[in-house]
Amino acid sequence: MPSLALVMIARDEARCIARCLLSAAAHVDEMWVLDTGSVDDTPAIAQRCGATVARWEWRDDFAAARNAALALTRADWRLVIDADEWIGAGAATLDDWRRDAAPRIGLLRVASLVEGAGADGQVATSWLPRLLPRGVAYRGRVHEQPLSALPRQRLGLQLLHDGYLPGPMVPKRGRNRRLLQQALQADPGDAYLHYQLGKDHEVHGEFAAAEPCYAIAQQLGDAAAAWRHDLVLRTIYTRKKLGAFAAAMALAEAEMPRWQSSPDFFFTLGDLLLDWAATQPRHASRLLPMAEGCWQRALAIGENPGLPDTVRGRGSFLAAHNLAVLCEGLGDAAQAGIWRERSMCMRVEAEAADAVV
Q: Among candidates 233, 254, 237, 255, which has minimal Cα distance to 245?
């Protein structure tokens, strides 16, 4: 059977690297960790978990680091994984993948836990190119991507990721911003870099700085880009946080025809309308029924796990929860109870489905 190696770049990941490596050790032939300057116990922990550790001087270039890590192995296939990720389900599909000799790149479902995940069940899902054949390399100083014309195919392996939670985010604050700004100086027309810079500002609550980055990304970007869905939702959210409700609504109206199958779009639009009504009560009688209709539309669409950057629950229990809160606020306790019970049932069903996967 063709060989498979886990390949990782890491620095100061003692918090989580053992979890990652131990989740994969039984499913790969080799594990390689390229340490880019840890001052904690990352290298020693990785070695204890069975990985071979090499050291590399950091050069402000993620693609260069990824490529240096890939060069450590001669394996036929490389599972590229970060220390704050771990295999959650579907590891058996790796053997099926290796038995098929067709040259291709594997897209893995990465489920990222986001703030409030424990209470609200917020898990954002992306499909990322992480299973690479030998010979494929990365490009991009920051938010690097594999450079290849090979077809991309989804497989059933799921990675879980907790790097977006508030605790792990603290030491990363500003880590990428300088690299993004340098990359944009070299290529100011790169829409994806503007989008990523906006995200970097947004996740740290810098909404006034994020909004113009998102606006530029929309102007320059391809409407068919896989990250467009997330860009639109983040722009609506950012404008809402800035109190720019009319501008957020204008964007939503322009984008609505494209996202008729997105529960996330209608969920986010409902949240926008609710906050608008709370800020401008004189318009509440018009806005609140619209918010209710958006959340009901999200429920009617249901979960769409194949959608890029979808958040679990926006087509089910999170939308039902918002409807319960709305009905409660309007004094309809009976209907609020119905929605709350539906939300609880939907959450249980979602958690049971995750356990089966």
A: 237
- Residue 224 has a pLDDT of 93
State which residues form the domain around 332.
256-356
φ, ψ for residue 339, nearest 5 deg: -65, -35
Note whether 268 and 150 are same-domain residues.
no
Q: Which of 116, 147, 167 is the last residue of a domain?
A: 167
CB 77 within 8 A of CB 4: yes
> By C-alpha distance, which of 116, 115, 42, 48 is closest to 84?
42
Cα angle value 168/163/151 (rounded, 5°): 160
Q: What is the CA radius of gyration of the chain?
A: 22
3-state secondary structure of 49: coil
Residue 168 has pLDDT above 50, yes or no: yes
State which of 167, 202, 217 marks the end of a domain.
167
How many structural domains is the chain composed of? 2
We report the CATH number of the domain holding residue 65 as 3.90.550.10
Q: How far apart (Å, rounded) are the C-alpha atoms in residues 251 and 275?
A: 16
Residue 119 in this model has a pLDDT that exceeds 70: no
Predicted confidence band of residue 59 (pLDDT cuts 50, 70, 90): very high
In angstroms, rounded to a whole number, what is the distance separating the alpha carbons of residues 254 and 124? 24
**DSSP character at residue 172:** G
Indicate if the pLDDT at residue 310 is higher than 90.
yes
* Lookup result for tokens 């609550």: 205
Give the pLDDT band of residue 117 (cuts 50, 70, 90): very low
Q: Does residue 310 fall inside a structural domain?
A: yes
